[in-house]
Design a protein that fits this description.
By secondary structure, this protein is of the alpha+beta class. 28% of the residues lie in helices and 20% in strands. Strands 1-2-3-4-6-5 form a 6-stranded antiparallel sheet, with helices on one face. Strands 12-13-14-15 form a 4-stranded antiparallel sheet, with no helix packed on it. It has a 4-stranded antiparallel sheet with strand order 16-17-18-19, with no helix packed on it.
Length: 467
């Protein structure tokens, strides 16, 4: 039975019912001590299912460990007349599920929301917490962006790089049993194949659900559908959803991000939510760059207009030559020398093998041992930052060189029977663009023009030729 308005849960006064789910009911309430509006989630009274109480307590521990602008904040936890309850931040807005009832979102808006969701998941994963029930109904759209709700199915895992906090170590030993023996927890249409098969869930499980949510955001359709639970599970396990581009036009990079999220094998997906954030950020930057490029419009000019334009061009040229000539005649000035330190990633093995600074002076590319502590890879670091990031797909890469427009990186790949060089767009995260031949003994290379897509690299020669 719903709690009546005016009921007191300790210092909290129930105002109205917000909604109800399979695990509990959520009420709008007032904190009489701090005079603020809060949301209270109470556990439905099902005494014959004690595992619900365990999941309720688990949700409290999960949310309490997180502090993120896109995760609903937990204020308090209590018990009233045998009823457990959570006191959470009251979030005004509408759920993503309610928004999608009016139709799909524009791609740019979906990318922004996706970045925020992925960033919130990354925060949870770094605390050893897997959500396992990510869906539009658990995502609230507010004036400041999205808020991730309901960690009721969250699975606590000890982070591999640090010991579990004392709060997590107090979990009952039977907690793991809630996910064993074929028990399926979560919302079926957003489950990963490994969840349906009853296998262990990890961060890549949430990445799959994020891909399903992103798909639905831009298409307005469910990625997987079936007339029954059996056919729906078969679709998730065996079939790929229709390509987004067959439903509505989207950028190829966004389509690739979603397809990678929805791979059946967890090893073929993005391995972390942080990777999804980075990919979506690059996609957003590309879309913004495309919208700011002016579109030329043809115009007819009369002969008189052409003469005026030519005269203005001559005058402009003369004005430009005056300071240039003064600069040539002046004695050279002392050039300031900038010194800086390059710290390679904290990996075992040799440090930086080779490096190259982009022509615009904004980025540094170098070769160092990759995250697997074994394979050399290319890394890229902004000159105004101390953090470097690895460039996926550059395994065994050495001798980086930048294109003149600082958009592409040319590098050699070692450990192959073929001596080849590869051209790669560092921002687009694209696949290999071209395989090019090179002379034996070459270790570095450069591109002669921004549009060069093919070149031959000669020993001890830092030049190239277009073909």
């Amino acid at each position: 039975m719903p709690v009546q308005p005016g009921t007191q849960f300790g210092p909290y006064e129930i105002l109205s019912l917000i909604g109800a789910g399979g695990m509990g009911e959520v009420y709008k309430a007032r904190d009489t001590r701090l005079d603020r509006t809060v949301a209270i989630k109470v556990l439905i009274d099902l005494p014959d299912k004690p595992e619900l109480t365990q999941r309720f307590e688990r949700e409290a521990r999960a949310i309490a460990a997180l502090n993120h602008p896109h995760i609903c904040t937990l204020y308090d936890i209590g018990r009233h007349e045998g009823v457990d309850y959570l006191v959470m931040e009251y979030v005004e807005g509408e759920t993503l599920a309610a928004r999608l009832e009016r139709g799909p979102l524009p791609e740019e808006e979906a990318v922004r929301y996706g970045m925020q969701i992925a960033d919130a998941l990354d925060k949870a994963h770094r605390h050893g917490i897997i959500h396992r029930d990510l869906k539009p109904g658990n995502i609230m759209i507010t004036a400041g962006g999205v808020k991730l709700l309901d960690f009721g199915l969250a699975k606590l895992r000890q982070a591999p790089d640090k010991p579990a906090p004392a709060l997590l170590s107090a979990l009952p030993t039977q907690d793991r049993e809630l996910t064993l023996k074929g028990t399926i927890l979560g919302t079926l249409q957003y489950m990963s194949p490994e969840q349906i098969e009853g296998k262990d869930a990890d961060a890549r499980t949430d990445v799959f659900a994020l891909g399903v949510v992103l798909y639905e955001m831009v298409t307005g359709r469910k990625a997987f559908e079936g007339k029954s639970h059996v056919t729906l599970m078969a679709a998730i396990l065996e079939r790929d959803p229709s390509p987004i581009s067959s439903i509505r036009p989207v950028s190829s990079s966004f389509d690739r991000i979603v397809r990678t999220c929805l791979q059946k094998d967890p090893d073929d997906r993005w391995q972390t939510a942080r990777e999804v954030v980075r990919e979506l950020k690059w996609t957003l930057e590309e879309k913004l760059a495309e919208t700011t490029v002016p579109t030329p419009t043809p115009a007819k000019r009369s002969a008189r207009t052409a003469w005026i334009v030519a005269a203005i061009a001559v005058v402009g040229l003369l004005v430009a030559l005056v300071p240039a000539s003064r600069h040539v005649l002046e004695p050279p000035k002392d050039v300031a020398v900038r010194r800086f330190t390059i710290e390679p990633p904290l990996m075992p093995g040799p440090a930086i093998v080779s490096l190259a600074i982009s022509p615009d002076g904004h980025r540094l590319a170098f070769t160092a041992i990759g995250p697997d502590n074994n394979t050399p890879m290319l890394w890229m670091r902004p000159m105004d930052s101390l953090a470097a990031q690895v460039l996926p797909g550059t395994e065994q890469g050495i001798g980086p060189a930048w294109s003149p427009d600082s958009r592409f990186i040319l590098f050699f790949r070692t450990g192959s029977s073929k001596r080849s060089i590869y051209l790669r767009g560092y921002r687009r995260r694209s696949a290999m663009l071209k395989v090019l031949s090179r002379e034996p003994g070459a270790r570095t290379a450069s591109l002669s023009s921004p549009t060069a897509t093919c070149c031959t690299v000669c020993p001890r020669l830092a030049g190239s030729r277009r073909s």
